[in-house]
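> call design_seq(struct)
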């Protein structure tokens, strides 16, 4: 499971948070086939103690996308299999066992943006910039970006990014929904870790529902969505942990919701 360009680090008293780090800074963390497969394997084999993951990239950039040096002459069939390999890996990120938070800085481009968009929360620092240079390279997204990115920013904005090579800076990226958090330079990892510890402290079934049920409910026709929501709500509230947490609040032992700062 070890790969020279991918690191796993465990944090917390109970090893409840994992940092998955791309460690190929000399190539701006470009994702070659071996690294994509290693990512898939890592998310399939996370230690059972882990309740949330942070992904980050070593060096000045989060990820420069597909390793263009590997872009060989592929026939149509090979192209499909290559794209499906990316899909399988990023599917393990999105629909793996625990929520994933991307800590972004520098370039988040091409397949790097596809990876970030498979995560559940994106935290960007002020150096972050987003682009989809596939259009100018004569190719197309192939790592699930055509499905996931429009759900974040809409078809029109993604079309513009690919047709014109438009680059969004960190502030604009947060405004249009590419990231949910914008933090000062150098603070994305710390903020992502702070969030990851909170997420890891949630009831596991609630996290599961948010990762696996919510995106599917959101795609369902309303009538079916309401039904799936009701089933998921009933399952989540029946867990002993849910009952204990509600009781703790009613007994004044759990935190209240605080006014936003
Ligand atoms: C790479 C890659 C890469 C850098 N594949 N080797 N992605 C792109 O089209 C983005 C291409 N990369 C860039 O635009 C820039 O490298 C960055 C803006 C990300 C960073 O710039 P900078 O000045 O910090 O680094 P650099 O000098 O451009 O690159 C340093 C080295 O990394 C250099 O190699 P060296 O041997 O000359 O030192 C670069 O060649 C190498 N490098 N990016 C291979 N992407 C599932 S489909 C997804 C489709 C896509 O992702 S297409 C978009 C690909």
């Amino acid at each position: 499971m070890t790969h020279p360009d991918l690191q796993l680090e465990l944090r917390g008293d109970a090893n409840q948070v994992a940092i998955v780090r791309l460690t190929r800074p000399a190539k701006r963390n470009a994702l070659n086939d071996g690294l994509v497969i290693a990512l898939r394997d890592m998310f399939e084999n996370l230690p059972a103690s882990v309740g949330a993951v942070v992904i980050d990239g070593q060096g000045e950039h989060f990820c420069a996308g597909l390793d263009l040096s590997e872009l060989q002459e592929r026939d149509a069939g090979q192209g499909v299999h290559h794209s499906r390999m990316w899909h399988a890996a990023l599917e393990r990120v999105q629909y793996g066992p625990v929520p994933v938070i991307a800590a972004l800085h520098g370039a988040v481009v091409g397949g790097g943006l596809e990876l970030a968009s498979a995560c559940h929360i994106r935290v960007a620092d002020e150096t972050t910039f987003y682009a989809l240079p596939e259009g100018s390279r004569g190719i197309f997204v192939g790592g699930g970006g055509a499905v996931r990115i429009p759900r974040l920013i809409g078809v029109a904005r993604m079309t513009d990014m690919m047709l014109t090579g438009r680059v969004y800076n960190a502030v604009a990226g947060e405004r249009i929904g590419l990231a949910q958090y914008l933090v000062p330079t150098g603070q994305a990892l710390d903020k992502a870790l702070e969030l990851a510890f909170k997420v890891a402290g949630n009831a596991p079934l609630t996290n599961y529902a948010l990762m696996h049920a919510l995106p599917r409910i959101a795609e369902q026709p309303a009538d079916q969505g309401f039904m799936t929501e009701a089933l998921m709500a009933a399952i989540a509230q029946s867990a002993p942990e849910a009952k204990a947490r509600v009781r703790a609040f009613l007994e004044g032992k759990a935190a209240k919701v605080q006014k936003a700062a």
